[in-house]
Amino acid sequence: MLSKLKSLSYWGYALGLLIAIQPSYIHPDEHFQTLEILAQKFGGIKGTIPWEFQNECPARSFVPLYLFYGPLYFILFKILHIQNPNIILSSVRLQNYLLYVIMVKWFLKQFCEPKTIKSINFLISTSYITSAVQSHSFSNSIETLILLSVLACYKILMSSSSAKNSDAGQNSANKNNYLINIFVAILIVIGIFNRMTFPAFILLPSLTLFSTYYIHHLKSFLLFIITGFATFLLCVQFDTWIFNSNQYDTSYNYIIAPWNNLKYNLQVSNLKLHGLHPRYTHILINIPQILGPGLFLVYITIKGQKFNTLNKYNLPFLSIISALIILSIFPHQELRFLIPLTPLIFITFNNIPSKKWIPIWLLYNIIMNILMGCFHQSGIIKMISHHQQKNTDFGIHIWWKTYMPPTWMYMNPNLTVSTTEFINDTTETIDFDEITSINQNYVIDLKGCDLNLLNSTISQLLTKNENLTLIVSDSMKTKLFTLKPYYDITEDFHTYTHLDLDHFDFNDMSTFVLGLTSYNVSNIKEEENKNEES
Ligand SMILES: *[C@@H]1O[C@H](CO)[C@@H](O)[C@H](O)[C@H]1NC(C)=O
Ligand SMILES: *[C@@H]1O[C@H](CO)[C@@H](O)[C@H](O)[C@H]1NC(C)=O
Question: Can you tell me the mean pLDDT for 281-304?
Fold first, then answer.
């Protein structure tokens, strides 16, 4: 059985690599918190400047972005001069996937008995979280890598402390430990600058480390604190420098991005903009969705005697508990917040239940890989690539009822982007003076606005422009075509591989379709009108 698992793992990693580079699009943050802003920095192109990077208190740091993607972006943009956004997207996904696979291998060596490595490797290699989520450019994906390294360092420090009595090699072990102390302090600070909730993942493991190791090694602790503080100052300095070099109109004395982020997130009125969830969402909805049939393993792990391995020195287990408790306090709870826990959860499973269970597990992950890893909103990426290939100036692109188009993929140095706004939390509107003043390389994201706003946007724009391009999810086709009497709407490009999970309407079966279409829209020509009338 074990050798079968081993070959299944190889298959899992190979197919996972393929899934990782599919053009699916799971959440706007995978573009707007990383790739969008980096492409503008490295590629000299224009796009969207996300709110986290622009208002009076920028809430995201450039430090982790430059560390994790800077070298790759430098090679792609400055050395190879890549113009194709798909190559850039695939390279990022490939890098994330491979880094994770390598990191996991090292991590498993630190934490698992050799006989359980194979089954845990099997779970990680075949889980859709590895191929379809971790490979995407979320800050959470970086968080996974940092968390695994920090826990592995903790483990090394703790075991060096318990093996202390053997005098031989004591000196070199000490030297080694000083390096690990420095390394782990740097990692933790970068982890916090990456996501300010990072401490939630390491709180209980850190208390354990303190009570078993640092309490006996105060010099090391001092080194840890000093390194951490120095890293913190460097990060603040770097962010201040980068933000001031942006041509956004504010100038800053200093920027502590995670602090700004915390302030922002503590205001429930802000979180409302991103969606409020019940406090049990992580435990009762997100974890089951991550694990699928793997939930059964949680059950037998807790029920069986295996539970006694989950003792107070089990760092992965402590990390899971501490993150779940603290993250559940926040009212904004998305699945991707938990992806750093996925490998840790697998590690606490000591065995795989039965041959019968494996096909069910595989089936669940294949389905999720197809839905989330291949089809989800993937028409958007294909659509932009299609339009971008022409590599010339274009007119006006209106996006309606899709995720935010990742505007960096237009790779256009003259791009302008406008979007809708809410007034009084209820009415969605757009600035008509602004949108009628631009007529080239212009992207208008109408998000999920209603048909009326779409109609008035089109009719306003057509007073100044001959035609425009309208990109709409096929689930909205029936609604869109109610505008056919007023405009000339002709199909221009169509892709089937676009899954829109947001606009199902059980009263209208036509909303249950795959696909994304771009249309040419213009005013109905007078002559045609006359012809029809006569
Ligand atoms: C687009 O930008 C480039 C470089 O910034 C500039 O040379 C060019 O004139 C611009 N084109 C238009 C149509 O504005
Ligand atoms: C769309 O706008 C046109 C022009 O303003 C108007 O005549 C028409 O009634 C509108 N249609 C709908 C369905 O709102």
Answer: 90
